[in-house]
Amino acid sequence: MTNILEVKGLTTSFLRSGNWTPVVHGIDFQVKRGETLAVVGESGSGKSVTALSVMRLLPPRTSRVEGSIKLGGDELLDRSEAEMRGIRGNRVAMIFQEPMTSLNPLMPVGEQIREAIMLHRNVSLAEAKALALDMLDKVRIPSAAKRYGEIPHQFSGGMRQRVMIAMALACKPELIIADEPTTALDVTIQAQILELLRDLREEEDMSVLFITHDMGVVAEIADRVMVMQNGSLVEEAEVRQLFRAPAASYTRTLLEAVPVVGSMAGKDAPEAFKASTFKVPPSPRPAHDAPLLDVKGLTIRFDVRSGLFERVSARVHAVENVSFSIGRGETLALVGESGSGKSTIGRTLVGLANCLRGEIRVAGEKEGSLCRTIEERRQRVQMIFQDPYASLDPRLRIGRALTEPLRIRGVSERDALEQAAELMRLVRLSPDMLKRFPHEFSGGQRQRICIARALSVKPALLIADEAVSALDVSIKAQIIDLMLELQQELDLSYLFISHDMAVVERLSHRVAVMYLGEIVEMGSRRNVFENPQHPYTRRLLQAVPVPDPERRMRRSLTVDEIHSPIRTKDFIPPVRRMITVSPGHVVQQWEMA
Amino acid sequence: MTDAATHPTAGSTWSRIVGPFGKSISGTVGAILVLIVLVFVFIGPLVWTVDPNAQNLIDSFLAFSSAHPLGTDDQGRDTLARMMVGGRTSLLIGFGSMSLGLVLGATAGIVAALRGGIAETLVMRFVDALLALPGIVQAVIFAAIFGRGLGPLIIALGIYSLPIFARVSYTMTRQVIGHDYFNAAIILGASKTRAVFIHILPNIATAIMAVATLRIGSNILTGAALNFFGLGVQPPSPEWGLMIADARQFSWQTPELLILPGIALFITSIGFNLLGDGIRDWFDPKLRNT
User: Fold this and answer.
1) In this protein, which residues make up the domain named ABC transmembrane type-1 (chain B) (predicted)?
2) Nearest chain A Cα to B202, which residue?
């Protein structure tokens, strides 16, 4: 096989406060014809910079690319910017993470592809249109001819990414660079796009440089893998080889930290990644019987207003008649894809969103239909958020951030500082760090601080809204371990809101699967994962990429989209019935398709 | 993670204040110009102790000399002394009206952003309506409403500056509210008022400071224009705009009487403008690393 791309001694440096700082340190790699090379690494590993260097898309004034980048034998580093414009999109195409920002929002998608074709190919308008339509067909967009004239926002995220792929393929490039193309997509949609890319690779014999942080995706799509860390090449190997016998210790750590769906089969209790850190192993069932949190018939709707007089034109049925309970020391995971209403439930429990009806009761509270938050609950229910960068005030020292909730409650400054030091030790950070500002911490440390802050008021229930989703794999594992340890030490209950099935399998006792605002299946983690009943649960579990190339399987190529919970004003939700499969395992009745 | 690149650099207070200005040339130039004006206006009269209002018709229209370094005007008053003392009035107008606009505007903007609903609609539509009128027209209308004199002029210019502060604080507050640290504070039991002082004000202060600095300059100019039209400070008190108005009729014989306060206005307004730009650059994360 011939090499399409040959990179030798690639060093990329950025100008930072007057000095050239290298971020990619002399790496060599090749992409052969018809091959998919995955570049994998954590944030800051230089994988995206490598891709941008190949495309020569870095700002020339503040960056420097050295070495040799040969595309089909031509040296790209010697090309002028004008020549590069003829190469980009023509001989090398790129697919980005966020399709919405890569497409022109005002131009019909078909026209955007046609324009790309006419820019590089000497064809007539009619021929280009026909070619563009062919491409939309090729990426399996249903009724492509009809959708040719639609603009990007009329497409769903997955469909938009298909359009991006169609555009990238339009000029039959020798190489496609895909930078985290499925990271922003829901897991069932990600599975479709990966499947599509695999099919297209065979049909078109295309070569792909695939950049990702997700070992599961690597196992699904790659022929060869290149592992990067801090701008250096750690290991390069054939995909099976890499997963079976990783040579570098960094690769091994990376692989060990990846949660794998199914790895917990046969186990009842949650399990930490580093089992040795536990004083007492987690128990399969919480010790107490009385539920800590009881939610009954929770319904949350938002009005969609439009027009001159802001009249209600439609309604988002975010959460529809949801009931669940959480025991003391228990973790209930709420899983689902975007628009399923899982985050809305979390926000309502802490009073950030209002509910229409339903009853929320925390143990110890007085009787009453408490759809609204009361101050008492604020202390017992706390929340940690997804983005550790946005959850800490950049202008507040950590000490201040941790003592603030106590000061509100009238604790003196000295006592509050003592407690803050104690909280820092609780989340395994040094109390010396209290004087620092948030930006002096890494993402993982910040998330620890957020946990400490939430624990400052001694809550009984902690809501974690995608709390580990934005973190790198190794950090993710550490935070999960910390959460499990804290649960043991403090008898905490968690409502763990996540789209990540593998993480959920690790740390939950019970799981509730949500789809379009409703719980479609709920039961013990073991029952739901090992004996899923509802078709949606099955689809969700099947869609999760498995970080094991031996278990790579073909899925049927579907174009199902996730439906929207926006309904007309007069929509009346159907009454659902729950079927009990086994004690504690319920599933919503569904129509056979 | 490149967190250090996207957040304000923390260090000693001194390096936080002075350090960034080394990188912003316009900010440095602006700061120097403003400093020169401040020294001229506030220290100057202590050194040059001539009475700015002492008339002596025999000495009218004198050229530059050691007794009168910048000459005298039609009534024999010392131009240098009048420039110095007049500058105080100009700066008072600029600073006073800016402060008034800032307090009223920022309060309105923050309250609108926090409360939402009808308060938001009312405040922001009112602000939009004010922004739709040309600045000088607004200033003239308010000056006409509040009457003549220094106090009414400051109030008129203050209200005229309200919309920009309301807009900026509204937008910035919305941004802070969108961050999860604000949500976390509310969940942890902070009242809205407490959240304003601990989270909102510190995070919007820098943007407001940049606007405020720009606003001092433009309010001095607008104030001078109103004084020129006789809508503000009344003679014989010296003020740069008024001095230009007085000198108008002698512009052929003694153009320096017109030009000197003009230069003073020019230096002051360009100084504050550059300083405002510098403050904005200083806090713009995109410019920090270059």
Assistant:
1) 87-276
2) A395
Residue B189 touches chain A, beta carbons under 8 Å = yes
Is the Cβ–Cβ distance between A326 and A380 less than 8 Å? no
Half-sphere exposure of A235 (CA within 13 A, CB side): 20
Residue of B183, B190, B289 lying closest to A408 (CB–CB): B190
Instruction: Please give the Cα distance from B72 to B56 (Å, whole number).
Output: 10
Q: What are phi and psi of B207, to 5 degrees?
A: -65, -40
Q: Is A525 exposed, middle or buried (0-12, 13-18, 19+ CB in 10 A)?
A: buried
Domains of chain A by range and CATH?
Answer: 275-395+437-588 (3.40.50.300)
Which chain B residue has the Cα nearest residue A353?
A: B183
Query: Is B253 a member of any domain?
Result: yes
Residues facing A14 on adjacent strands: A21, A63
Q: Which two tokens stand for residue B75?
A: 């009534």
Distance CA A241, CA A8 (A): 23
Cβ A169 vs Cβ A205: under 8 Å: no
Q: Which of A23, A393, A440, A471 to mutate to test the interface with B (most CBs of B within 10 A)?
A: A393
Measured between its terminal Cα atoms, the distance across chain B in Å is 18
- Residues of chain B found within 8 Å of residue A438, distances taken between Cβ atoms: 7
Say if CB A152 and CB A160 are below 8 A apart: yes
* Under 8 Å between Cβ of A508 and A502: no
Q: Please give the sequence-ordered ranges of beta strands (E in DSSP) within A370-502, or none if there are none.
A: 381-384, 461-465, 493-498
The residue written with tokens 């600045």 in the block is B135
Structure tokens at A190: 């990600």
B16 within some domain: no
Q: Is A389 within 8 Å of B10 when comparing Cβ atoms? A: no
Q: What confidence tens digit (pLDDT) does each residue in A287-322 have?
A: 556 788 888 888 888 888 776 667 788 888 889 889
CB contacts, 8 Å: B184 with chain A: 383, 385, 391, 450, 453-454
3-state secondary structure of A418: helix
Contacts of A134-137 with CB under 8 Å at 24 or more apart are A135/A166, A135/A167, A135/A169, A135/A170, A136/A109, A136/A110, A136/A163, A136/A166
Rounded Cα distance between B107 and B110, Å, is 5
Q: Which domain holds residue B120?
A: 26-49+74-288
The domain total for chain B is 1
pLDDT at A184: 80
Return phi, psi of residue B37, to 5°.
-60, -45
Contact present, A322 and A305 (Cβ < 8 Å): no
Task: Tell if the CB–CB gap between A439 and B290 is shorter than 8 Å.
Answer: no
Is B186 within the bounds of a domain?
Answer: yes
For residue B175, give the chain A residue with the closest CA. A390
Peptide bond into B236 cis (omega under 30): yes
- Is beta strand A291-306 parallel, antiparallel or unpaired with respect to A357-362? antiparallel
Query: In whole angstroms, what is the distance from residue A15 CA to residue A405 CA?
Result: 42
Q: Is residue B62 part of a domain?
A: no
- Distance from C-alpha of B90 to C-alpha of B41, rounded to nearest angstrom: 10
- At A395, list the tokens: 């202008």
- pLDDT by residue (tens digit) across A390-439? 899 988 899 999 999 999 888 999 999 999 999 999 999 999 999 998 88
pLDDT number for residue B3? 39
| DSSP-based helix, strand, coil % in chain B, nearest 5 | 75, 0, 20
Q: What is the mean pLDDT of residues B147-156?
A: 84
- Asked if A67 contacts A11 with a C-beta cutoff of 8 angstroms, the reply is yes
Instruction: Identify the band that residue A365 occupies on the pLDDT scale cut at 50, 70 and 90.
Output: low
DSSP E strands, A256-380:
291-306, 311-327, 331-335, 357-362
- We report the CATH number of the domain holding residue B80 as 1.10.3720.10
